[in-house]
Amino acid sequence: MNNDCTILVMGISATGKSTLAKALAERVSGSYVDADDFHSEAAKQVMQDGESIDQVMRAHWITRLSDYLQHEASGITVLAYSGLIAAQRKQLMAASNRAIGLLLTGEPSVIAERMNARKSHFASPNMLTSQLALFEPLTPDENLIFTLAVEDATEQQLALAINYMKTQGILTHEATN
Ligand SMILES: Nc1ncnc2c1ncn2[C@@H]1O[C@H](COP(=O)(O)OP(=O)(O)O)[C@@H](O)[C@H]1O
Ligand SMILES: O=C(O)[C@H](O)[C@@H](O)[C@H](O)[C@H](O)COP(=O)(O)O
């Protein structure tokens, strides 16, 4: 394992994971990685049709992501990843030397608005219902995952995330100045 740390930025589709993860990667001089890039073409087609991927497709996707984190990632990796299933969140948190999570949650109506407004993305807005149904709430042992509000501006989410990372010893004060 060559990576110092992975920051998993999680939440159902259109909660703002990619937006926050890109901003955070820039702020901490890390690498932004989008879990969307690890989907098969067949999985993308399913999501384009407005469905969430099935368990088998999700398991293959998680294996590819886990392999990447274990063997290819280096430095600080900021991964935008849905994290719907608790056991899989734990698997990816365990795939790095060090990992923390940020979870974007909020009102379904706000998320629906963002999904509908988003044009250039393979996931169809019809996915919202299945994403909400599939999402498994955090379990008590998932204590390195910090929840952020989708309703907050990205800058505010970023400030809270940086503060959390400092309290967890992931960042020094100097690293983000
Ligand atoms: N904090 C925010 N406030 C308002 N709009 C946001 C915020 N974060 C993201 N968005 C917008 O919401 C949409 C979905 O964001 P995106 O980052 O693509 O979500 P995800 O990666 O979770 O699917 C995009 O159009 C994005 O510009
Ligand atoms: O079932 C899942 O685990 C999710 O649907 C996952 O596949 C992801 O959320 C998609 O990649 C959609 O992309 P965005 O989350 O970037 O909208």
Explain how this protein is built.
The chain is an alpha/beta fold. The chain has a single domain, classed as P-loop containing nucleotide triphosphate hydrolases (Rossmann fold, 3-Layer(aba) Sandwich). Helices cover 42% and strands 18% of the residues. The chain contains seven helices and five strands, in the order βαβααβαβααβα. It has a five-stranded parallel sheet with strand order 2-3-1-4-5, sandwiched between helices. Helix 1 crosses helix 7. The longest helix is centred in the middle third of the chain and has 17 residues. The protein is globular. The model has no long low-confidence stretch (mean pLDDT 92).
Name of the CATH homologous superfamily: P-loop containing nucleotide triphosphate hydrolases
Shape: globular
The strand line-up of the biggest sheet is 2-3-1-4-5
Task: Note the run of SSEs as H and E.
Answer: EHEHHEHEHHEH
Total helices: the number is 7
Which small-molecule species are bound to the chains here? adenosine-5'-diphosphate, 6-phosphogluconic acid
CATH topology, by name, is: Rossmann fold
| CATH level-1 class | Alpha Beta
Oligomerization category of the chains in this entry: single chain
Could you say what the CATH architecture is?
3-Layer(aba) Sandwich
State Rg. Answer: 15 Å
Number of domain modules: 1
State the distance separating the first and last CA atoms. 27 Å
Which band does the percent of strand residues land in?
A: 15-25%
How can the largest sheet be summarized? 5 strands, parallel
Roughly how much helix do the residues carry, as a percent range?
40-55%
What's the number of extended β-strand segments? 5
